[in-house]
Specification:
The chain has 511 residues and is α/β, with parallel strands linked by helices. Helices cover 47% and strands 18% of the residues. Helix 15 links the parallel strand 16 and strand 17. Helix 1 runs parallel beside helix 18. Bound molecules: GDP-alpha-D-glucose (GDG).
Length: 511
């Protein structure tokens, strides 16, 4: 079965019939903020939002998330809800309000100074404080209240996003065992040895094992999770089927590599508005007669931005013929700025760019342009369309959607993707130039390879990558999750037809 937007919509309507769909995440898909005395609405730079918003637009339902914008309260109704997207409402956003202490303890500290570095192997020491764990519990409970209220007495499928809500599944099931609950963990799961450092491991794992279905990007992460549970908790583990039974309840652990809305992205990127943006950027960056590379990330130490910049420096050292010819634009969207490590990283990137530019600068050229700002989707597509190569050099990344967006933008079948082997995306995009981001020489060589690659090879590689992303887009991701849930949770009347049974077996076997 294919999974276009319409097909997913029809499938969900038919198979989930009267079921309500509730998505839960920390980050909200639309943020309202004051710009002077006007209110503006923006979409945050988040892979999770980029993936889930099209699904909610296709299926409808309620999205429960933290209301983080300074104009969020002014734009919601008495039930804390607002219809979105603003220009063409297709689903309801329910906002949960957190005070500063809750946000600092649950989001900044426990989630992003504790679980985030624990799950990514990037050699940052995770920090754990009991008072933050208490705030994490409190905030999970607040979200449970909102979900229980939204679900009411209706049969409901709750789809929880990410590591901010490890305790929420248990809280929901304890209060309403009829809820069907799935969770997708958007970041890697570490091996058992690493996870042992987490002081409240039993409580967290117990919370997650209230899910009917638990999804990770990769089989490897599923395996790590199952082994972690096997060695930490009283439970029955079926290693063949990747199913865990605790307190008489079974959780299926499955791999679902996430993706993007390929068709929409590709169509928009080929449109006239993006073409206009391309002309503007080309002029602004002085690209005439030059080769152009781009990197576009949240400013996060997992994304390997300093390593990328050092490899550009090395490339200029070893390839003098590209001096005065190469322009590299690094767009860095500020993120988690209340965490000192992120602020320091922002400063490190700025000073590295300054240092490298100072080293190579001529009267009419500097190699690196740094833009520390949030761009609109059209601007990002225009930059992707213009770039001879795009660098994704994450030190560790669950999937990485920027890599897939670059590929989707290149309807001209041109451009080279330089991609870290330590991204989930590298498992699918084998026709990228794969690199070890820790190895500066390897990355510098990859830049040279990208710039010298014959047009025919670029076309062949890009066509293959486009076929991969088109064939496994975000609707397929969601469709496979819903199919798996139907298999595990619903009795006979909702049994799928033969074709989908095959799909389940495949997705079951993929773990
Ligand atoms: C987590 C996992 C996994 C970037 N700059 C702007 C902007 N973006 C968008 C990109 C992309 C998204 O943000 C970033 O997605 P990633 O996948 O690269 O990374 P994370 O945010 O770390 O996401 C990751 C993902 O969850 C999904 O499961 O792939 O491994 O870490 O869509 O285009 N968007 C806008 N302006 C920008 O300036 N609007």
């Amino acid at each position: 079965m294919t999974w276009s937007k319409q097909e997913l919509h029809d499938f969900v309507r038919e198979r989930l019939r009267d079921f309500k769909l509730i998505v839960v995440s920390n980050r909200e898909p639309y943020i309202h903020g004051y710009a002077g005395d006007r209110i503006e609405c923006v979409q945050p730079a988040s892979g999770m939002v980029a993936a889930l918003d099209p699904i909610m637009q296709a299926c409808g339902g309620v999205w429960v998330a933290h209301g983080s914008g300074d104009a969020d309260m002014a734009t919601t109704d008495a039930n804390h809800c607002v219809d979105v997207p603003p220009e063409n409402p297709l689903y309801k956003l329910r906002r949960v309000w957190l005070d500063k202490e809750q946000e600092a303890g649950y989001y900044y500290r426990l989630s992003n100074e504790g679980l985030w570095p624990l799950c990514h192997i990037v050699y940052r020491r995770p920090a754990f404080h009991p008072e933050d764990w208490q705030l994490y519990r409190d905030v999970n409970a607040l979200f449970a209240d909102a979900v229980i209220e939204e679900a009411g007495d209706s049969p409901t499928f709750v789809f929880i996003q990410d590591y901010h809500f490890g305790l929420l599944p248990r809280m929901l099931k304890d209060r309403n065992p009829n809820l069907v609950v799935a969770q997708f963990w958007h970041i890697p799961w570490p091996n058992r040895e690493m996870f042992r450092a987490f002081p409240w491991q039993e409580e967290l794992l117990d919370g997650m094992l209230a899910n009917d279905l638990l999804g990770f990007h990769l089989r490897y992460h599923c395996r790590n999770f199952v082994e972690t549970v096997d060695r930490s908790l009283e439970c029955l583990v079926d290693h063949e089927r990747h199913e865990i039974t605790r307190r008489g309840k079974t959780t299926a652990v499955r791999a679902f590599p996430i993706s993007i809305d390929f068709e929409e992205h590709s169509d928009k990127a080929s449109g006239p508005e993006v073409a206009e943006e391309m002309v503007r950027w080309k002029r602004q960056l002085g690209l005439r007669g030059r080769v152009f590379g781009v990197g576009l990330d949240r400013i996060d130490y997992t994304k390997g931005i300093p390593d990328r910049l050092r490899s550009l420096d090395r490339f200029l050292e070893t390839n003098p013929e590209f001096r005065e010819r190469l322009v590299f634009l690094q767009v860095g969207v500020p993120s988690r700025i209340h965490i000192e490590e992120y602020r320091l990283l922002g400063e490190e990137i700025e000073s590295l760019v300054e240092e490298i530019n100072w080293k190579w600068l001529t009267r009419s050229w500097r190699p690196i342009v740094l833009l520390k700002q949030h761009l609109g989707p059209r601007a990002m597509m225009a930059l992707h369309r213009l770039a001879d190569f795009c660098m994704v050099t994450s030190l560790h990344d669950g999937m990485n959607l920027v890599a897939k967006e670059y590929v989707a933008s290149r309807s001209d079948d041109d451009g080279v993707l330089i991609l870290s082997r330590f991204t989930g995306a590298a498992g699918e995009l084998e026709d990228a130039v794969l690199v070890n981001p820790f190895d500066r020489e390897d990355c510098a060589d990859a830049i040279r390879k990208a710039l010298e690659m014959p047009a025919e090879e670029r076309r062949r590689r890009m066509q293959k990558m486009r076929a991969v992303v088109a064939g496994n887009d975000v609707y397929r991701w969601a469709g496979k999750i819903v199919s798996s849930l139907l298999k595990f949770e619903f009795p006979q009347p909702m049994q799928p037809e033969r074709e989908e049974r095959i799909l389940w077996i495949q997705s079951g076997a993929s773990c």
